[in-house]
Specification:
This protein has two domains: 2-101, Rossmann fold (3-Layer(aba) Sandwich), CATH 3.40.50; 118-241, Rossmann fold (3-Layer(aba) Sandwich). The chain is 39% helix and 16% strand. It has ten helices and ten strands. The chain has a five-stranded parallel β-sheet with strand order 5-4-6-7-10. Bound molecules: guanine. Residues 73-76, 98, 118-119, 147 line the site of guanine (GUN). Guanine (GUN) binds next to strand 3 and helix 6.
Length: 258
Amino acid sequence: MEKLKESGINPGLAVIIVGEDPASKIYVRNKKLACEAIGIRSEEYALPAETTQEELLALVETLNKKEDIHGILCQLPLPKHLDEEAVINAISPKKDVDAFHPVNVGKIMIGNFDFLPCTPAGVMELIKESGIDVKGKECVVVGRSNIVGKPMAMLLLHQHGTVTICHSKTRDLKEACLRADVLVAAVGVPELITGDMIKEGAVVIDVGMNRLPDKRLVGDVHFESAKERAAAITPVPGGVGPMTIAMLMKNTVKAATL
Ligand code: GUN
């Protein structure tokens, strides 16, 4: 960061949060702390739940024009009366450090991109740093969200994995999961994937973050049974979450150089 700053690059990230969702508040706080830790300037825009679509779009427009802001992130989900898609579309693609804008989504599909979405990029980094090569392997992604499932499948495909995407209408989820050499769970169903659905020696990555009625935080994988079969497995919390934030930092630095 010091070298970047010496060369006149001083990355700035704007984080917008609307309303009082407790999980979103924690995510935003962690993003701000990461910025402080590595020397990225961050500005937080905490707006009340009753903010109108026009007010939110006006803020995005101001931030698009602000020269000392290189990255803009609007924490999702937004309160129900706001149109998430319109907000994503309003963020300048060059400042879209989440890589949610359709221009960036399209670039990822083609394979010529500036930013990767933070969570899937973090998963790929974990896989790579663990010395795992997905080339030719059976990769199963459970979940098809725009934020994780769909881009995750694309990144595994870029690395030459043989990719299956499963979702709520998949006829036999267990059969599909049992084929996986690399299994990524991103469905938002607490402990849906149990040990009996995992092939011996598989790599299991749990993107889930589910709060149970008893306040426990669990993933989409039942960790205790899954760890008996997996060769490598990520815990919740502390697995993918910190990687997502690391990738946000990387994207913000990249945005400052565009
Ligand atoms: N909500 C859950 N994950 C994310 C993310 O990666 N970015 C934003 N902006 N909101 C989220």
